[in-house]
Amino acid sequence: MALDIAEIRTRFPILERKVEGRPLIYLDNTATSQTPSIVVDDIVYNYEHCKANVHRGVHALSQEATERQEHTRRRVRDYIHASSVEEVIFTRGTTEAINLVAASYGDRFRDGDEIVLTVMEHHANIVPWQLLQRRKNIKIRVALINERGEIDLDQYRSLFTPRTVMASFCHVSNVLGTINPVKEMTRIAHEHGAAVLIDGAQASPHLPIDVADLDCDFYAFSSHKMYGPTGIGVLYGRKELLETMPPYQGGGEMIKHVSFEGTTFADLPFKFEAGTPDFVGIAAFSKALDFIESLGLEAIEAHELELLRHTTERLTNEIEDLHIYGTATHKSAVISFLVGDTHPYDVGMLLDKLGVAVRTGHHCAQPLMQFFGIPGTVRASFAVYNTMKEADAFVDALKRVMMILH
Ligand code: PMP
């Protein structure tokens, strides 16, 4: 059944905001999505009614706060089809989740080992591996893409050698929108004995995630792109691997017993959750999952793809010299483009004056920009609350911008 977008919008007070005296048209959802009242209210409820530190107290408030946090862990386990809560680690976001794996799982890598990344990775899935290179003499090999922005699977396969220990790639590109064949990519990596991390930051708001079906070893994503609170992410890890990995950070909550002679660590998942987590946000994250599930990911995706199809068609037909970066057959609702030789920053600034929020620049994917030989792009990205009217207003605003710039 089609979603009632007008009703959904009423749940996001921010969408009533005006920018430059015009109704806000928010098309920067890839960077972060907006948050419905059900999540904001839960944050307020937590602060007003049950703020107490988790896991430490015997008192009622602490137990309640713990239960609210652990409720979200169970919700996440079910959402991604993990086999147990021990496989669900809360982090600050996708970035921290990937850093955790690079630092902790990477600890076992030996000089001469190799890891495979792709040219479309976000810096969050490049720099942690480069930091590891400071400690280990490992080699990074890079999978390339075709002109539509799709992974060249033959070239990807050819990168694996007996020294490959890890493949790490995004599920969906934050620039191109490409939905990668991650199940196949995982299978190829496993055939070569390499572990697999999937950066799901751009998939989790739009696509169902089934880590059991994907058979990946690690899967990372962020709450703030899923209509949830900022500062919270999830690392899924296969239990057998997590058990063999050293802690990422040390501190409270992650120990069994500490003495100056030696320390023993807590069981999973707490071994990887040093310090006080953002338990308020984690609790409220379950409401964001409720929101997504109440609409249904299939319906969300169908709506977003309709916006993508319509906008792409109008942009291509009506704006001269427009080039879209990323035209994969399997694509999510992200449009990165340039028009002629106009600078993306100028286009973005002028669109903002017309009330349209888009992102401009390299989108934390500088190697991809180097691959295309461009400084950056303008990027419009959709979420469930965007309307056809907004898509049309964006194209019309872009036409005006091009008139101003020419
Ligand atoms: N990977 C991808 C593909 C992303 O789009 C982003 C966010 N732009 C990240 C990783 C990093 O996510 P976060 O900043 O929430 O840690």
Report on the structure:
With 406 residues, the protein is an alpha/beta fold. The protein has two domains: 5-28 and 296-405, Alpha-Beta Complex (Aspartate Aminotransferase, domain 1), CATH 3.90.1150; 40-293, Type I PLP-dependent aspartate aminotransferase-like (Major domain) (Aspartate Aminotransferase, domain 2, 3-Layer(aba) Sandwich). The chain is built from 14 helices and 17 strands. It has helices at residues 5-9, 37-49, 60-80, 94-104, 127-135, 153-158, 182-191, 211-214, 239-244, 279-295, 297-318, 344-353, 366-372, 388-405, and strands at residues 18-19, 22-23, 25-26, 88-91, 114-118, 139-143, 164-170, 195-199, 218-222, 233-237, 255-259, 262-265, 322-325, 334-339, 356-357, 359-361, 377-381. The strands form five sheets. It has a seven-stranded mixed β-sheet with strand order 4-10-9-8-7-5-6, with helices on both faces. The chain has a four-stranded antiparallel β-sheet with strand order 13-14-17-16, covered by helices on one side. Strands 1-2 form a two-stranded antiparallel sheet. The longest helix is centred in the last third of the chain and has 22 residues, at 297-318. 46% of the residues are buried. Bound molecules: 4'-deoxy-4'-aminopyridoxal-5'-phosphate. 4'-deoxy-4'-aminopyridoxal-5'-phosphate is lined by residues 31, 93-95, 122, 124-125, 170, 174, 199, 201-202, 222, 233, 364.
